[in-house]
Amino acid sequence: MDSAFYPAFLFVGCALGLACLMYGMGRVMGPRRAGRVKEMPYESGMDPINDARRRFDVRFHLVAIAFLLFDVELLFLYPWAVASRNPEGIDRAVAATQTAAGAMRGATDFSRLLVFGEVMVFIALLALGLVYAWRKGVFQWR
Amino acid sequence: MLEPLIKIAVLLGGLMTAAAYFVLLERWIAAWVQDRLGPNRVGVPLTRIRLFGLGQPMADGGKFILKEEFMPAHVDKRLFLLAPISILAAALAVFAVIPFGSVLPASVYTLFGQDAATVASTEGPVPLVVAPGVDVGLLYVFALSSIAVYGVIVGGWASNNKYSFLGGLRSSAQLISYELPLGLAILSVVLASGSMNLDEIVHRQADSGVWFIFTQPLGFVVFVIAAFAEAARLPFDLPECEQELIGGYHTEYTGMKLLLFLVAEFLHMITAAFLIVLLFLGGWHIWGLAGPDEQVTWVGAVGRLIVLHLKVTGVIVFFMVVRWSWPRFRFDQLMALAWKVMLPLGMINLVAVAIFEELSLALQSQLGGWTLAISLLGSWLVCLGAWFGVAYATPMIGDNRVRKDIHTYEVDPQI
Fold first, then answer.
1. Which residues are B126's β-sheet partners?
2. How far is B152 from chain A (nearest CA, A)?
3. What pLDDT shows up at residue B329?
């Protein structure tokens, strides 16, 4: 268990423990007097009409789907962002493959440019998707 | 084993105390903004000593503990309990990768009975972060702060109350919408620093002496606005909005469960302030305090700690002043801002940063020191251009009066 994550997991455990402890404290020390009116939903003093489990606006689903698409596409960009300026990243990988393949030296810059161009195309596609969703009225709330 | 436990204990204690006292600070600031006195009565119990109201958080905490622990009849009991506990645990656990200082010199080990000579030869400086080796730090922050969305929507759903349900729906839509610009702004910082470890990002700014707010002003603006929305602070506090939804998702919560939600909210704000400071404002760095971690003296270490926490407090005070001076958005304006303004701005910022980084890498050998000046100038021009572009375009986006050229009362064929 000698991983870098182990203190983080320990922290998660402690945080959960603290939250449960606080809740338990309130449970032990607080009074309890239930009552029929007290157990009703609070809706500004009116007797509630119907349950809250009802149909809701489909736009929330549209936003959720748009979010999923964009968020997953953003996740693709993270590896590039980390590798781009990192000395252990793109430059070294390109240099290593070129040495292994016995290719000509000095082609590193071109490969770098190629990666950059690909990412720009990717972002352009993302922007295109945004424009499409916009034109389709996904973000139109009335 | 002992080292992370000590850090966790310090951090948990500090965070809970900070959350309690920031409530007091917020009430003071509210009073100051509204030109009234604010809480100044509660001091030492059973005496007449008032201490400027510094006893208020203790009194509030005690009151919360002694409140009735009460479960309404109509709720989904397991989810109703799970929501506040999970949201608080996630809000706390984010701090596992957030540095709350720079480092302490290795001589701190001698306090725990280790021999000074062996310490000097074997141990490095002690990083002031619980999990220093986690290279995916920012992803971890992202992942855990997404759990807050679950806490809110589960709480709203389990309450089985229409106000709570509406609050939960709104907040899920809001939080996921603003996560995209947040991610884009973070992406450009990651791109410029080549790491997702928050400590490395601060080091990158400290080594060059140029904070990312200077090189990525547009990213800073996008990040701050998105962070406000993610923390559900006032211009974006639609999940709660006391006046409309009487508390939104925590309408049905009382006592300790409500306290868990409220503390988690304050922790979200503290997290956002930490992230703003670490990513854009140089973290513990101030000119003159730079240098490698191994050579930090006690004075330097404490200085870094103080600088970081002063910056964080400053950002939090900014959050609070904004809360008491701005009205709330309407929901359609909120969504329009997220998708039609912040997301495109985030993309523009990312592309601009990528181009500047690539250019400065290519031109470094020819221009030397001028590359920094050029990229600074360029990024500020981009920021200004974006500002004018938004100012020019938003009246058309935000205008939701009935348009004469569309029949708004028919079913919209586009949906």
1. B104
2. 15
3. 80
Question: Could you tell me the residue ranges of all domains in chain B?
Answer: 1-66, 70-348
Looking at chain A, which residue has its C-alpha nearest residue B337? A139
Task: Choose, out of B1, B6, B63, B65, the residue to mutate when testing the contact with A (most A CBs < 10 Å).
Answer: B65
Q: Is B55 helix (H, G, I), strand (E, B) or coil?
A: coil
Q: For residue range A112-127, what is the model confidence (pLDDT) as tens digits?
A: 788 888 889 999 998 9
Q: How far is B335 from chain A (nearest CA, A)?
A: 7
Q: What angle do CA A28, A30, A35 make, to 5 degrees?
A: 120
| CA–CA gap between residue B395 and residue B375 (Å, rounded) | 31
Q: What is the pLDDT of residue A1?
A: 45
Residue B241 pLDDT level (bands cut at 50, 70, 90): low
Task: Please report residues of B whose CB lies closer than 8 A to that of A83.
Answer: 194
User: Under a CB-based contact definition with an 8 Å cutoff, are residues B261 and B87 in contact?
Assistant: yes
Reduced to 3 DSSP states, what percent helix, strand and coil does chain A have, rounded to the nearest 5? 65, 0, 35
Domain boundaries, chain A: 58-136
Q: B195-209, pLDDT tens digit by residue? A: 888 888 888 888 888
Tell which residue, B237, B75, B266, has the closest CA to residue A38. Answer: B75
**Mean pLDDT of all residues in B38-66:** 81
pLDDT tens-place string over residues A16-75: 998 898 888 888 887 877 777 777 777 766 677 677 677 777 888 888 888 888 888 888
Distances (CA, A) of A35 to A38, B73, B105, B159, B283: 5, 10, 59, 17, 52
Q: How far is B159 from chain A (nearest CA, A)?
A: 8
